[in-house]
Amino acid sequence: MPPKQKIVVSFAEKVGIVDVSYMSEIAQRLDVQRSLIFYQKKPHPNVIRLSREENVELIESPNPKQEIKTINERFGKDKYDIIIKNLEDMRASMMDPC
């Protein structure tokens, strides 16, 4: 059986430069074939441009968490190794605790 392709997926209400850079770094570190971010609010044009340069796919969705759950259920068992990263947790860890 051939090895499963790795896909890293995440979500954010509105995607920013830091989110795209983080997902690109994760994809490189984990040797991932595809990196997807689901969002609700359209990102700034600079974010869209960076996502193309970094090969991070941005996908609009009214319910990103449900979309990720559906992808994981549909493709996670047999075809793909799906890695879910929570961008909201990453953002919270970057905040100044003071």
pLDDT averaged residue by residue: 85
Low-pLDDT residue intervals, each spanning 5 or more residues: none
Q: Total domains, how many?
A: 1
User: What about the largest sheet?
Assistant: 4 strands, parallel
Give the % helix.
Answer: 40-55%
Class by alpha and beta content = alpha/beta
Major β-sheet strand ordering? 3-2-1-4
Could you name the CATH class? Alpha Beta
CATH topology: Dna-directed Rna Polymerases I, Ii, And Iii 27 Kd Polypeptide, Chain: A, domain 1
State the total count of DSSP E strands.
Answer: 4
Any idea what the CATH superfamily is called? RNA polymerase, Rpb5, N-terminal domain
Order of helices and strands: EHEHEHEH
- C-alpha Rg (nearest Å): 14 Å
Give an overview in words.
This protein is of the alpha/beta class. The chain has one domain (5-85): Dna-directed Rna Polymerases I, Ii, And Iii 27 Kd Polypeptide, Chain: A, domain 1. It has helices spanning 17-29, 45-53, 64-75, 87-94; strands spanning 5-14, 34-41, 57-60, 80-84. The chain has a four-stranded parallel β-sheet, with helices on both faces. Helix 1 runs parallel beside helix 2 (45-53). The longest helix has 13 residues, at 17-29.
Descriptive keywords:
about 100 residues, alpha/beta
In short:
By secondary structure, the protein is of the alpha/beta class.
Topology:
Elements: E1 5-14, H1 17-29, E2 34-41, H2 45-53, E3 57-60, H3 64-75, E4 80-84, H4 87-94
Parallel strand pairs: 1-2, 1-4, 2-3
Helix pairs in contact: 1-2
